Amino acid sequence: MTEDVLVEVDGAVGVVTINRPKSRNAVNGAVARGIAAAMDDLDGRRDVAVIVLTGAGGTFSAGMDLKGFLAGDLPVIEGRGFGGLVEAPPRKPLIAAVEGYALAGGFELVLSCDIVVASEEAKFGLPEPRRGLVAGAGGVMRVPRRIPYHVAMEIALTGDHYPASRLHELGLVNRVTPAGGALGGALELARVIAANAPLALAATKRIVVESADWRRDEMFGKQAEIVNPIFASKDAMEGAAAFAEKRAPNWKGE
User: Highest taxon of the source (predicted)?
Assistant: First the structure.
């Protein structure tokens, strides 16, 4: 999309790369706009089923570009929030591939993803209080929803860095790879997911995300609103036919 955000499509997987390695992929306005545009583009493509977000040069992202912040260059898109992502993630499954640091806003971008694959050398943290700031791009809201309360409080209040191994123990990181292997591990997982029907994937993600706020007496009705169109889709017929004919399905996203 821009020099600061690179987009590549490999089969049914789209890869979005924050490309400011000299700044440890700090997020400025250009990066936020680039991520937002990339997500819109990939979300709208029928040939893409899964999206991977990563950073160039061995670092995911050190967070907000503080120099840009001081100059008034805010990395926020109206209606989408920090990085053009945290308030409006894509409908399709989104996997974070983390090498090096994912700190502050960088960690908040990770928390906006559905699955996290991290290098054994990756470090995560919310150091905003050390700079007189608050992790207001979803960090202090999402961390306690993903891991136990007291550990979430420690991460949010100390500003310390935590290794991928620790967050894997807590269930926040799905898979830990050798150094340099996060993107490869994320792509491997993405291809497994992308072999499934794209409409079913998007609907499944929507139910997992939205059902947390559904009342017990309304949950099946709300689920039906999302699921019924999937059962009536051409892909549902194709899935059944492929099973009966003992062949791989040919998904159309219809």
Answer: Bacteria
